[in-house]
Write a structure and sequence with these properties.
Layout (H helix, E strand, L loop, with lengths): L2 H17 L6 H14 L8 H13 L10 H22 L2
Helix pairs in contact: 1-2, 1-3
Length: about 90
């Protein structure tokens, strides 16, 4: 499953739950989340929205997902935020 398809699937699961009709799709949701639980690390390096959505949905459905597995992603995000802040400060003083 490609990263964009995975994100689309997670967003669909989230929308179905928000609409309150998730009980009609319990088997499909469980299959998708089971797959995501075993493969989530390979996809979303640098996509904070996808990481957060996947983490929340997996935890919400009872999967154990360690926060520590996101440590390398956290380092990359901190670097990206730092670079963006330097750019914004630089733009302000031009």
């Amino acid at each position: 499953m490609t990263p964009s398809k995975s994100l689309e699937k997670l967003e669909l699961i989230n929308t179905i739950q928000c609409l309150g009709v998730a009980y009609h799709f319990e088997r499909e949701i469980e299959e998708a989340l089971s797959y995501m639980c075993t493969h989530y690390e390979e996809y979303w390096i640098g996509d904070l929205h996808a990481i957060a959505l996947c983490f929340r949905l997996l935890r919400q459905h009872g999967y154990y997902v360690s926060c520590g597995k996101y440590h390398s992603i956290n380092k990359q995000m901190k670097k990206l935020i730092h670079e963006n802040m330097i750019y914004l400060i630089y733009q302000k003083y031009l």
